[in-house]
Amino acid sequence: MKTTGGTDDQKRRAGERAAELVTDGTTVGLGTGSTAAFAVRAIARAVDDGLDVRGVPTSFATRELAREEGVPLVALDEVETLDLAIDGADQVDDDLNAIKGGGAAHTREKVVDAAADRFVVVADPSKTATTLDRAVAVEVLPDARTTVAARLRELGGDPTLRRAERKDGPVVTDNGNLVFDCEFGPIDDPATLSSDLSAIPGCVEHGLFVGMVDEVYVGTDDGVEVRTRG
Ligand SMILES: O=C[C@H](O)[C@H](O)[C@H](O)COP(=O)(O)O
């Protein structure tokens, strides 16, 4: 379920600017998606030029990309903290709360992004909103999909099991789970919804990232707008 309306140039500007934050010795979380991919490629070029970094990939897809491009990698279970994480988002509000998971990678992304001293989202103008209102991705244990769907409806949501493209059946995440896309309409209180979703047994992780993002780099047609929390 991709929701972006931005251009590749906008995404490239955001990704490349964020990649400039990577300095010698940095352990950097490598986000997932089309915007974060520009940062990964820019980091790879810096590695070619001699930069010493360790990348922590947030998905199978990003691990493959980073390997192809030549970014040295370290596994998530080998790090306790990261210096920096650079990741995309499906939507970011004025308080820098975000919705992620359009590529079903939000569970590992949240682990990596939360462990980073500095978490920078790279985005294009189509991702910005005053109030979050996109569907929230909810990764669920396969056997818990019926009970979790019922709890999501009790919270006012309208969950739809994400279907795979070019495969019959549902999307299966890198962790072997399923994903609901859950419509809540405008989310006036992301913090409360985030807590409520986290409390559902069988919900592995959801795509609301509340109070986690330090900066958003929004690539525009002629530059990069930097938004900072607070
Ligand atoms: O699961 C995927 C991630 O959360 C992505 O970072 C998010 O969907 C944004 O992807 P894109 O930059 O391709 O719009």
TrEMBL record:
Biological pathway: Carbohydrate degradation; pentose phosphate pathway; D-ribose 5-phosphate from D-ribulose 5-phosphate (non-oxidative stage): step 1/1
One cellular component term from this protein's GO annotations in UniProt: cytosol
List of catalytic residues: 109
Isomerase keyword on record: yes
InterPro entries, per database record: NagB/RpiA_transferase-like (IPR037171), Ribose5P_isomerase_typA_subgr (IPR020672), Ribose5P_isomerase_type_A (IPR004788)
Transmembrane parts of this sequence: none
Binding site for substrate: 32-35, 87-90, 100-103, 127
Family: Belongs to the ribose 5-phosphate isomerase family.
Name of protein: Ribose-5-phosphate isomerase A
Annotated organism of origin: Halopelagius inordinatus
